[in-house]
Amino acid sequence: MALEGKIVDFGVADILQLISQQQKTGVLIVERSNESVEVLFWNGMILTAYSSEQNENEELGWKLVTAGIINKEQLKKVTDIREKNFKHLGEILIELNMLSKEILEQIIHNQIYDVFSEIFQWKDGSYAFRPKSIDLNEKVFSPLGLELIILDVLRMIDEWPDILKKVPSLSSIFRKTDRRLTEKDKEDISHEEIVVYKLVNGRNKVGDIVDKSLIGKFATAKSLMGLLDAGYIKLIPKKKAIKADKGVKFRIDDNVLISGCYGVLALIMLILLIVSPPDIKGIYGLFTESLIPSTSRHSYFERNRLIKVKNALQIYLWENGRYPENLKALVNARILNRGEIKDSKGDMYYYKSEGGSYKLHQRDDT
Question: How far apart are CA 310 and CA 316, in angstroms?
């Protein structure tokens, strides 16, 4: 049975965790409005993630040409080869020594992080997981465990408001200042900042630097902020002022438009994170105490026990086409053990199946 539903009922982070815990193999499709993303799973690990509107191989080829790693003639050559043997474009490039496996991994992994940092914040839309047999091509993919991605994505989401104050748009342009980056200076900054610095020329837009650097949107924007703070680069102001009553329009990515001045934008994003935070903080706080909210430690871990039962109910629905009549069915199905269907006091959770939905809470909850 395919697993599908609405994000408002079962968030993106929840469904990713569910698939990972059950070590499933297949494709997760997440959609909203005119946006669609595909995440490829292999034994519960992430192989890749990309926009459904783009052909993965064509997108890879375009990125490599834009970054200057291969030229258009080389791309045509490997594309012709692929049409005959149906291999992944990356595998052909590696075999022809046009691309290293390390660079291919960097491109795929950065793409995963960029996609996840976006869909983790979706509050509406739908998802559908289709089990599918996938042969792991180790020449192309290096699977990532979901737990390896979570903390970085959380950090990216938290840091975006500060970055947007300094790097407001993919269409923004920076230029180098009189302070030049010396060999000694390079010892004090990151490799990503060095890569980005070389691409700042007063003509390349932020989006151009993202495409040419191959380090992803977040790493590019953060590197620009670091170089700006250190005085190595400067933002070129737009020639024409924009009337205040119309606000300032800018993009986080190609699909999201946010209006308002820079300070207002940062405030809005912070409010959204505080008032309506992504579900991931409730779930993945398991990985670090710094993510524990300002409730009591007991309440926090009790909530996570309840989340585990909810995930188990979804697994049961997935495998049986209906919710169980009682929680003991989860134990009989070997999804949970006896202790996991009870709260921290040892009392059985209140549960009632209601056809396509259910009620679940602690016995003393009102």
Answer: 10
pLDDT in tens, the chain (366 residues): 568 899 988 888 888 988 998 899 999 999 998 889 999 999 999 988 888 766 677 778 888 888 888 899 999 998 899 888 878 888 888 888 898 888 888 888 888 888 898 888 888 899 999 998 887 777 777 888 888 787 788 888 888 889 988 998 889 999 999 999 898 888 889 999 999 999 999 999 999 999 999 888 999 999 999 999 999 999 999 764 333 333 333 333 333 333 334 444 444 444 444 444 444 333 333 233 333 333 434 454 566 677 778 877 876 776 677 889 999 998 887 777 788 888 878 889 899 988 778 888 887 755
- How far apart, in whole angstroms, are the C-alpha atoms of residue 301 and residue 289? 11
Place of tokens 């034994």: 43
Rounded to an integer, what distance in angstroms lies between the CA atom of residue 282 and that of residue 301? 10
| pTM for the predicted model, two decimal places | 0.60
Q: Is 86 in a helix, a strand, or coil?
A: coil
CA distance 241 to 8: 40
Kindly report the length of the chain.
366
Q: Name the DSSP class of 294.
A: S
- C-alpha 62 chain-centroid distance: 21
3-class secondary structure, 248: coil
Name the residue among 217, 208, 204 with its Cα closest to residue 176: 204
State the DSSP string of 164-224: HHH---TT-BEEE-SS---TTGGGGS-HHHHHHHHH-SSS-BHHHHHHHH-S-HHHHHHHH
CATH architecture of the domain with range 159-275: Orthogonal Bundle (1.10)
